[in-house]
Input
Amino acid sequence: MESQSAVTLTPDQPMVAHEMCQQAVMDVLMEAIPKNLMPRTLQVVPVFDRQSDRYQLLCQGWTAGEKRVFHPMIHLEIIEGKVWIQHNQSDLDIGEVLFSRGIPKSQIVLGLHPPSIRQLNSAYAIEG
Output
């Protein structure tokens, strides 16, 4: 994923260290795991790959009708110092939660939206 336009950070928005981004992402995802998942035959599993900077909550299990469930709920990546929200099927506004954890919006990319849509929300980083 190459960026077409770089975001210039203002002096009051310094880049957050990589380790802080990793910890914030993992903390947010752990807190996003539902406590009472229905049906009880489903579970949400955190999948963290710190070496490749990919972080995911995976929903898996079976429904009452014996239908297999296996899909990502949330998928985040850290790419070139920015947290990319690649997928979000939760009720959480992951960008706002990360921001509340100290990650500046200029360091968060809404990768789940096409680049043309990302430009409409100038609060977040705009990447190609």
User: Anything to note?
Assistant: Residues 18-118 form a domain with the TATA-Binding Protein fold (CATH 3.30.310.110). The chain has three helices and five strands. Strands lie at 42-49, 54-62, 68-79, 82-88, 108-109. The longest strand covers residues 68-79.
